[in-house]
Amino acid sequence: MGEATLPIVIGCVEKGGRRQPHPALSNAVAAIRGNTATAGLPAASILTPEFGQISQGVKLLDWVGFDHYGDSDNDWTNTLNALENTYASGKKYIIVPGSLNNCNGVSLEGWSRYITRMENDPNVIWLAPFMWLTSGSCKGVRDLPAYRAAYTAAGTKIKDSQYSASTSWFCGFAPDLFWIKPRDTASGMTEVHILDATTSYSTFKLHAVTPYPNANTDQVSFALGDANGDGKTDVYLISRYNNATPNVEIHILDGATNYATYAGHYSTILPAVEGGLAWTFDVADYNRDGVPDLFVFKKVGGSSGRTEVHIYNGADGFQTTLGHFPMPMPPTGSDDAWEFHPADYDGDSIPDVIAIAKQNGASTEVHIVSASSNYATYSFETPTGLHTTGTDSNWVFGVNDYDHDGKLDVFAITKSGATGTEVHALKGPSYQQFNLHTSTPIAALPSDTSQTLLINK
Ligand SMILES: [Ca+2]
Ligand SMILES: [Ca+2]
Ligand SMILES: [Ca+2]
Ligand SMILES: [Ca+2]
C-alpha cells in the first residue's frame, strides 16, 4: 500500500459475462477518476471466484481479491494464481482469509497460507481477514486471540517496513483540534472551528455555525465521536441541567452537514446533575458495537467514596446502563485538577480511562485505569515530562496517537502560551518526552470552561 493511501472500495461488481463492463461500474470508476480529490486513489474490490464472468469489469480496478471459503490449500492457491496470471494480471492483490467462528457461511481457516503468500508475493498488498469484528455470537478475528495475534503480527511487520520512517499522517486519520465556542460568538450561536492536524494546527479547515444557541458553559459540555458511523466526527453537546426533560440530555451535531443539523436528540436515563466540573463527560465505544457510549465521570459525591465512571449505551439512546464502576482514585473535586478521557491504552480495544492529575505531585501525572479490571485498578502510573498544570481550565488535555506508533500520546493544550493557544504532546507509552510543541492561530483564551478545545478521536 502506498504511503497514507486508502483505496476506494467498490462493492457489488456484477457478474454476467458481459463484453463491456457493467455501466454502473464504469460510471463509478469514471466518477472516481474525474474527481481531483480521488483521482489518484486505487479502486479496489473483492470478487467471487467466477473471474471469467467479470473479465471486462475487472480491468477497471487497481486492487482485486476474492472471497471463497473452505477451499483446500491447493484450490485456494490455484484460484489466486488464476486471478494474478490470467484474469487480472499486473494489478495488486487482496487476500481475504475466511475467519468467522461459530457462524454459518464462512469458515474459520488457519492463517498460515495467507501470511506466507503475503510475505512472498510482492503484488499482495493487503491482508483483509473476513471478519475482524464480532457480531452477536459470531466471533471475528479480533476476539479470537490466536488469530488476532497472528494477523496483528503480520500487520505490524508491514507497518514497520513501510511506515516507520513516515512522518505523514497514517491513512489520513489525523487528530484535528476542535475549538468549540459556546458563547460570545458573532453569530449568536454555538460555533465549531477545526484546526487542521496536517498543518500542525496552523490553519483552520472549518468554521461552522451550529443551530444551538449560545450556551451556559456551566450547564453544557462537549465531546467528539462518530455517532452515526459515517466516518465523520460528530459533536456531542451534553446538557447537565435546565433541560426539557428532568434528565441529562444529549444533542448531537452532525459532522456530515458541518454541524448545521442534528444527528439526534436524547434524554438519557441519568437524572440532571449539578453544573461545573463535578461531573464530566466523554464518549467512547465500551461494548464494541460500533456506537459511542456515554462515559460519565462522577468526581465527587459518589456512593463508593471514590471517583466513579458510569457508562450508558449509545445504541439505545442512552437508555440502559453498561456499568457503574468506582475507580481507584478518591474524589477528585469540582475543579479541573483531574481530567478523565476514555481511550484504549493497552490494545484490547476496550477504552481504558486516562486520568490526568494536573496538580497532584511535582509534575503533571498520567494514571491509566484499565478496563480489563472493570476500572478498579491502575495498570500504569507515572509523573510526566510536563510541569504541574493547575486546577483551572487553562491547561486542558486530550488523547490520541499523534505519531501513529500504536501508542496513545497525551495532548496538553494551553490557552495562554507565549503566542496564545499552544498544543503539546507527550509521547506514549511513558509520557516523559514531548513529540509536539506548536502554536496555533487561536489567541489566548480565558482559563475557565467558556471555550472548549478537544482533540479528535
Ligand atoms: Ca458522524
Ligand atoms: Ca457502544
Ligand atoms: Ca483497553
Ligand atoms: Ca504515539
UniProtKB/TrEMBL annotation:
Keywords for this protein: Signal
Top-level division of the source organism's lineage: Bacteria
Name of one Pfam family that matches: FG-GAP_3
The keyword Signal is assigned to this record: yes
The protein's name in its UniProt record: VCBS repeat protein
